[in-house]
Amino acid sequence: MDVRGKLVIVTGASQGIGAATSRALAQSGARVILVARTESKLQALADEISAAGGEAHVRPCDLSDPAAVMALGEQVSAELGLPDVIVNNAGAGRWLSVDETPIEEAVQMMQAPYFAAFFVTRAFLPAMIERRSGLIVNVQSPMSRVVAGGCTGYAACRWALRGFNEGLRADLRGTGVKVTEAMFGEVSSDYWANNPGAEERLPGIANVLIPTMTPEQVGAAMVKAIRSERQLFMRPFMLSVILVLLWMAPRLVRWLTVSTGWQRPA
């Protein structure tokens, strides 16, 4: 899909991958709708995009609230039109074992990314199906494929998003609406600062084999993912190698991931 002139909604757009993706899309000629909770951060980003000659629209929303998301869908459709692309990027969550995770935090982690992606997609999907075109991009973590110790709640919400992605693709077969799963390795974003202790739990095997990407690199890659419309788009290249190895030798890769990751204190 050529993004020039396309209306693209990006969730989790206030910082990190979402902000970098929004900049890259606007630079490529897309009309970007910025969605997150914090209006001031979204407005600062919109001003930056506008100053650079791009088009950005601010729509603050609590994506864990289904009524608020449905209202967002009605407002966007009425004022700006039906999006051509949805980038479900919103996500959060500390890397904790089950016994370390407060119950309310486990619920919050499931709200974003899984429920946020479900609610936003649901708000626009009927009209996309009627139009018979559109692209839904679900931004994913490698923890949706192989899991290390000490991040059970985070991994569970990523596996839920994986199930949503696969089910959605099956639902939409023959409708003209496509689904892309965009997966990236470690990114040097605000996520690690906002979730202290998580980075230290990354498996050592990943740190050795998979280069860290900057948010800007991910933003540029996201534009390529949209243009390609592939079912699965991965960066960097070594992440693809690891997942091929997971398919060929699943027990070995899982053993390496667990054995080089977080270990429960004795």
Strand-helix topology:
Blueprint: E1 7-11, H1 16-27, E2 31-35, H2 39-51, E3 55-58, H3 66-79, E4 85-88, H4 103-131, E5 134-140, H5 152-171, E6 177-184, H6 191-194, H7 204-209, H8 215-228, E7 232-235, H9 237-248, H10 250-259
Parallel strand pairs: 1-2, 1-4, 2-3, 4-5, 5-6, 6-7
Helix pairs in contact: 1-8, 3-4, 4-5, 9-10
Report low-confidence residues grouped into runs of 5 or more: none
Following the backbone from N to C, one meets helices and strands in this order, namely EHEHEHEHEHEHHHEHH
Gross morphology is globular
Number of helices: 10
As for the CATH topology, it is Rossmann fold
Strand order of the largest sheet: 3-2-1-4-5-6-7
Number of strands: 7
Give the helix level as a range of percent.
Answer: 40-55%
- Rg of Cα set: 18 Å
Family: Belongs to the short-chain dehydrogenases/reductases (SDR) family.
Transmembrane segments: 232-249
Keywords: Membrane, Oxidoreductase, Transmembrane, Transmembrane helix
InterPro entries: NAD(P)-bd_dom_sf, SDR_fam
